[in-house]
Specification:
Elements: E1 11-13, E2 22-24, E3 33-35, H1 80-93, H2 97-100, H3 104-110, H4 114-122, H5 127-130, H6 139-148, E4 158-165, E5 168-178, E6 202-203, E7 209-213, H7 233-237, E8 246-249, E9 262-265, H8 270-274, E10 280-285, E11 290-298, E12 301-308, H9 315-318, H10 321-338, H11 347-366, H12 379-387, H13 393-402, H14 407-416, H15 449-463, H16 475-483, H17 545-553, E13 555-558, E14 560-561, E15 566-571, E16 575-580, E17 587-594, E18 618-626, E19 629-635, H18 640-653, H19 658-661, E20 668-671, E21 686-690, E22 696-698
Helix pairs in contact: 1-3, 1-4, 10-11, 11-14, 12-16, 13-14, 14-15
C-alpha cells in the first residue's frame, strides 16, 4: 500500500458498542476517509469522517509522489470452493506438532474430507458474495453487497469490512475485525503467569510413573470449569491410581514438572512433544515384542525412561487381544522397574479371557460350537492358565472336573475365585481386576457355590508348589503364542482387531514358497467358523485370484465402531476405510472399482493422487443394509500414506509382486519377519514406503505430513 503524503490529524472513530472515542495514532488515514461498516455496527447514524472538505498542502518538491488513496488494488475474488479445500487440506495434513494437537484432522476426515467440508461451508456463504468469484473487486460492488446483508453478527464472531475514501470512488481497503473488539481493551496489560498452558496433571507429582496422554479428560469435569485429566479406566483396572502415578496432558514446556522416571504416550505424535532434544533410543525386549524406549541421561546416569505404549489404550475397552497383551507387557515392565506394589498388569488380558469365556459358554449352550477342550484352547487362554498356576494339561483337566465337566464354565468360575497371592510370587503378579461376585454375568449364567469352593481349594493347592516361574512362563509357550498370533484377531469380541501402521510387520502372511504378501483382511467368517483359522502357510489361496475377484465383485467385512458414529473397515494392505454412519452396521460389503489406465475415477479414494499415479484409478464403495433399505457410498482419504497404498493396491490387483512394486515411486510394501528370502534392497523385515524417486524409506521415517497437489478432474 502507498502512504498518504498529506498531514492528517488524529482520526477518532467510534466502534460498534463502544462507550467512548479511541484515538488511533498508528493507523492514520487521510481526512475524508470513511468506514463502510454497516450503520447498525456504529454509534449513531452519521459517517465517521473527519473534515468533509479537507485542505491539502501544496507540494514543495518536484518529486512525483503517490497518495495512498490514489492506489486502487486489483484483486480478483478467488474460487471459494478451491480456497476452502486448500485450507482444510493444509489443516488436516500439516505436520506442525502444535497444530496436530487441535482436532482439525479428525473433524475434517470425520466429515468426509476437504471436499465435503467445502460444500458444507459454502452453504453458509452469502450468495451475493459467490457472484464475485473470478471478478475484479470494486468498491461500489462491495458496498452494494454490504447494504443488502443482514447486520446481525454473532457476538463472538468476526467479519471483514472495508475502508473507502471520499476523494476516490475506486479506493478500498479490507480489514478483518471481531464483533467483540471493544472487549480487548478490558484485558489487563500484564497477563498473570499461568503454570500450565493445558490441563494440569492429576495425581501424585512425586510418583515414579507418569502417563502422558493426548486426551482422556475426566467425564464429569469435561464441561465444567474444573477440567482435569483423569487416570484412564484401563489403567485403573491394572491398579494405577492418583497415589502411585500422575496422568499428564503432555506439555513440552514443563518437562521437569515431576520426578517420574517413566513416561507413556499414546501415539507416536506425542514423541515430538515429550522427548528431550537429545535422547538415546534403544529396544526393550518383552514377551510379545520389542518396544522402543528412550533414555534421558544426565551425568552418565539414567535420569528418566520414556516408553512408547505399543498400542492405543482403547484396546482395553475394545477387547482387542493382541493390542491388550502388548500394553500389559509394557505395564508389567513399568511396575517391575519402579517396584510399584499392587499392580495387576494383566488386567486387560483377563478382560479378554472373560469376553471369550462368556461367548464360548453361550455358544456351547446354543449348540453353535462344540465344547471347549484342551486341544482347542486358544494360546492366550493357555498363557493365562499358566499365570494362574495351571501350567500342565493334568492341572487344566482337574480344573475342568471341578468346574462341572465344562472347561468354559470352569474358566468363568476361576475368574470369580477370590484372588489370592501365589506363594513366592511378586506383588506385581497378574491377577484379575474384575469385581468378583456370585452374581451372574448374564441371565442364563449362574455360578454354582459348590463349584466355586472346589475351584478355590484347587487354586490353593496349586499355589503351594508353583511349577514354573510365575512371571516368566516357558519359552515354548511364548513361542506358541507368537506362532499363532494371526489367530488372535478372530477370537475376542466383535471389534476389528487389526494393528495400526506401527505394527504392520506382525500381520503379514507367507505362503509355502516363502512369498510374502501385502494382504491382511478381516473377512466376515468369524460368526460361523467352527475350526481354528488356517496358519500362514495354508492361506496362499486367499491372496491370489480369489481375493482379487471378491474385492472387485464385493467382499463382506466386519468393521470397528468408533466414537461419534465413525465406522472403520480394514482391508488388503492395511488400508483403512473411514465412514461416518449414524447407526454403524455389523458388517459391510466393500467393492473395489478400478478404472482403465489413464482414467481417473470420479470417486477416487486417495484424493492426493496425481494423474500419473495408478491409485487415481481406484475407488472403494461401501454397501450395507439397514432394515430394508440398502445404502451405498464411496469413501475418500487425504493422507499421503493412503496415496502410496492405493498405488500398491492397484499394482497388486493387476498381478504384480512385491519385488516389482518396490521399484516404483510412491508405493507401500511390508516384509514379514517370516519371509525366507528378503527382496533385494531391503535389509530387514518391516514396512516401507517409496518416495517420488522410488527410494525405499522405512515407515517410521516416512513423512506422513508431506503435502501433494490434487489434480483437477
Amino acid at each position: 500500500m502507498g502512504h498518504c503524503k498529506s498531514t492528517c490529524r488524529k482520526l477518532k472513530r467510534k466502534n460498534h458498542g463502544q462507550q467512548g472515542d479511541r484515538a488511533y495514532e498508528s493507523f492514520s488515514l487521510p481526512s475524508g476517509v470513511r468506514s463502510s461498516m454497516p450503520p447498525s455496527r456504529r454509534v449513531g447514524q452519521s459517517q465517521s469522517t473527519v473534515d468533509p472538505q479537507p485542505t491539502f498542502p501544496l507540494q514543495t518538491t518536484q518529486e512525483t509522489t503517490m497518495n495512498s488513496w490514489e492506489l486502487v488494488p486489483s484483486v480478483v475474488f478467488p474460487n471459494l470452493h478451491n480456497t476452502i479445500c486448500h485450507l482444510t487440506s493444509s489443516l488436516a495434513t500439516d505436520p506442525n506438532v502444535y497444530l496436530q494437537r487441535l482436532p482439525y484432522h479428525s473433524v475434517i476426515t470425520g466429515y468426509g474430507g476437504p471436499q465435503k467440508i467445502a460444500q458444507m461451508l459454502l452453504e453458509w456463504v452469502d450468495p451475493h458474495i459467490r457472484t464475485l468469484e473470478g471478478r475484479f473487486l470494486r468498491a461500489e460492488e462491495l458496498l452494494s453487497i454490504q447494504a443488502r446483508q443482514d447486520n446481525c453478527w454473532s457476538p463472538n464472531g468476526g467479519y471483514v469490512d472495508i475502508v473507502t475514501d471520499s476523494r476516490n470512488n475506486e479506493y478500498w481497503r479490507a480489514y478483518p475485525a471481531l464483533t467483540n473488539f471493544e472487549l480487548l481493551s478490558q484485558l489487563k496489560e500484564d497477563l498473570e503467569p499461568i503454570r500450565l498452558p493445558w490441563v494440569p496433571p492429576n495425581g501424585n507429582l512425586e510418583a515414579l510413573v507418569g502417563f502422558a496422554l493426548e486426551y482422556f479428560l475426566d467425564a464429569e469435569s469435561e464441561h465444567s470449569d474444573n477440567t482435569k485429566i483423569s487416570v484412564p479406566r484401563q489403567f485403573q483396572d491394572s491398579g494405577w491410581n492418583v497415589m502411585n502415578s500422575v496422568t499428564w496432558a503432555a506439555n513440552p514446556i514443563k518437562k521437569d514438572l515431576t520426578e517420574m522416571t517413566q513416561f507413556f504416550w499414546s501415539t507416536q505424535k506425542m514423541q515430538e512433544l515429550v522427548l528431550p532434544t537429545e535422547c538415546k533410543e534403544t529396544r526393550l525386549k518383552l514377551e510379545s515384542r520389542e518396544v522402543p524406549i528412550f533414555l534421558e541421561i544426565e551425568n552418565e546416569a539414567i535420569r528418566r525412561v520414556y516408553v512408547l505404549i505399543p498400542n492405543p489404550i482403547d484396546a482395553f475397552l475394545l477387547r482387542e487381544w493382541r493390542k491388550t497383551h502388548k500394553i500389559s507387557e509394557a505395564l508389567h515392565f513399568t511396575s517391575a522397574i519402579t517396584m510399584t506394589v499392587g499392580i495387576r498388569p494383566y488386567a486387560g488380558d483377563n478382560g479378554c479371557i472373560l469376553t471369550k469365556a462368556i461367548r464360548d459358554y453361550m455358544d456351547e449352550r446354543k449348540g453353535i460350537q462344540e465344547h471347549l477342550a484342551l486341544g482347542t484352547l486358544h494360546p492366550m487362554t493357555r498363557l493365562w492358565f499358566t499365570r494362574r498356576g495351571f501350567a500342565k494339561d493334568e492341572d487344566i483337566s482337574l480344573l475342568q472336573e471341578k468346574g462341572g465337566g465344562s472347561l468354559s464354565n470352569a474358566i468363568l468360575v476361576l475368574l470369580h475365585v477370590t484372588p489370592c497371592r501365589f506363594q513366592n510370587a511378586p506383588m506385581t503378579s497378574a491377577m484379575s481386576s474384575f469385581r468378583r461376585s456370585e452374581k451372574p454375568h448374564a441371565p442364563e449364567f449362574k455360578i454354582d457355590k459348590a463349584q466355586l469352593e472346589a475351584v478355590r481349594d484347587l487354586c490353593y493347592q496349586l499355589s503351594k508348589n508353583l511349577p514354573i516361574d510365575y512371571d516368566h512362563p516357558s519359552d515354548g509357550l511364548i513361542q506358541d503364542v507368537k506362532s499363532r498370533e494371526e489367530d488372535l484377531e478372530d477370537d475376542v469380541g466383535e471389534a476389528d482387531v487389526l494393528e495400526r501402521e506401527d505394527l504392520e510387520t506382525s500381520r503379514i502372511c507367507v505362503d509355502d514358497h516363502g512369498t510374502f504378501t501385502l494382504v491382511m483382511e478381516t473377512p466376515v467368517t468369524l460368526w460361523d467358523r467352527k475350526k481354528p483359522r488356517a496358519c500362514a502357510s495354508d492361506r496362499s489361496f486367499t491372496i491370489e485370484g480369489k481375493t482379487r475377484e471378491e474385492l472387485l465383485q464385493g467382499h463382506k467385512y466386519l468393521g470397528t465402531r468408533r466414537g461419534q458414529g465413525m465406522f472403520v473397515v480394514t482391508i488388503h494392505s492395511c488400508i483403512q476405510l473411514f465412514r461416518r454412519i449414524e447407526e454403524p452396521p455389523r458388517e459391510v460389503i466393500v467393492k473395489a472399482e478400478i478404472k482403465p489406465p489413464s482414467q481417473r475415477h470420479p470417486h477416487v479414494w486417495a484424493q492426493e493422487t496425481l494423474a500419473t499415479d495408478p491409485g487415481s484409478r481406484l475407488a472403494f464403495r461401501i454397501m450395507y443394509t439397514r432394515g430394508d433399505v440398502e445404502t451405498s457410498s464411496y469413501v475418500t482419504s487425504n493422507m499421503v500414506r493412503d496415496l502410496c497404498k492405493a498405488n500398491s493396491f492397484v499394482h497388486w490387483m493387476e498381478g504384480e509382486g512385491v519385488a516389482d512394486i518396490i521399484t516404483r515411486p510412491r508405493q507401500f510394501v511390508v516384509v514379514s519377519s517370516l519371509t525366507i528370502t528378503i527382496p533385494q534392497g531391503i535389509s530387514q523385515p518391516g514396512s516401507f514406503y517409496t518416495n517420488d524417486y522410488a527410494t525405499l524409506i522405512s515407515a517410521r521415517d516416512f513423512n506422513l505430513g508431506e503435502k501433494r497437489k490434487i489434480d483437477a478432474v
